[in-house]
Design brief:
- With 453 residues, the protein is of the alpha/beta class.
- It has 2 domains: 6-62 and 333-452, Aspartate Aminotransferase, domain 1; 65-331, Type I PLP-dependent aspartate aminotransferase-like (Major domain) (Aspartate Aminotransferase, domain 2), CATH 3.40.640.10.
- It is 37% helix and 16% strand.
- The strands form 4 sheets. It has a 7-stranded mixed beta sheet with strand order 4-12-11-10-7-5-6, sandwiched between helices.
- The longest helix has 21 residues, at 334-354.
Amino acid sequence: MPVADANLSQLLTEQRKHVTPALSRLHDHIIVKGQGSKVWDETGAEFIDFNAGIGVTNLGHSHPAVTAAVIHQAQQVSHVQCSIGFSLPYLQLVEALRPMMPHESLDTFFFWNSGSEAIEMALKLVKRATNRNNIITMVGSYHGRTHGASGITRSKPIYTQHTGPTMNGVYATPFPYWHSLGVDPSTPEEELVRLAKYQLELLIKTQTAPTDVAALFIEPVIGEGGYVPAPAAWLQFLREFCDKHNILLVLDEVQSGFGRTGKLFAAEHVPGFKPDVLVFAKGLANGYPLSGVASRRELMEKQEVGSIGGTYAGNAVACAAAVAVAEVFKTQPILENVNARSKELFDALYAIRDSPKTGHLVADIRGQGLMVAVEFRTESDPLTTKDLPAGTALPKDIGKRIQKKCHDNGLLLLTTSCFDTIRFIPPLVITQDEMAQALKIFTAAVEEVAHEG
């Protein structure tokens, strides 16, 4: 276990003021070590990490198989630029990923560095393949911070605030989420899907002709917008809608991929579901910068040679890490652990919701696998308070206060969305004991906030 390091504390004090203030931090210290589901900072403080680098270190920090693969590859060749030649791990990764894809038609790949860049690649791909310019996106979606990616993001305005016009030709339609549709949280899923269908059909009647639409982008689980899983009926409808209008369907599994929802990809929760393009990153290489786009060859070959590329795209060391990740999923019971720990997490959250001490704080519990959220009620939101008894007082900033109490007691958690929501994204290898310890900390924090008012 790391011990307090005065030299590192001094470095932090002297240099943090030279880091851009536009970058926020949950833990304003130096993370000096990570092992499995835990991290330590320069003071020696230990934390259970329920963020996993925002869904990146799915196999935990410093996984031995990934570490060994990185060391080995760094000793061979650290980088082969993708326009110059292939590295061995690049081709091994293609070989490993093909059978992992949620549909066999996804047989052609391009690797980049980040999720945002992969979204940019997908935007160019669908526009070139269809010779159309318009894009349909979902209210609540998050696709990245670069120009095109932020242009189709609809989770918060902060990503485009004061930076001028974004990419044009983008149209947003409501996701089947009660906030997006302005209905009661208890609205049945079938009704949410019906209302969302109507709004999408209305969009192509009033805002853009379908013959001008290149693609529809969707996260199968809305991520930064609040961890809202897409109903199977909604995804099935979108497939039919896109086929009817010759629109390409792009599935953004940057956060939901690689075991996060209890399947290798969230699309697998709908048997036989076929996206035209799949975008993935985060858990792909367990912390090394790597992302990918997969599609069928007939679409990929519509892009002219040289129209895509990147200095670091498909870096050899990152690809070697990803090959190791794929092997771990193949040989170890990762998904079984996800589903077992998921049940424990949901059971604990339901207990908080059903408790007379804390239930009045909870508006919604949702998610899949270990991509889970609890949304709290706020007095300013009538959708979340209409069923409360008259005179019920709600604390202010519930999520932020719970997050702070958890942090002070050794649990790192993130909030998310424009609503008062805490998200749970622990490493997929988290143990039963670690889950129990984390949930004990979280439950105590919720009870304290409820008591303090």
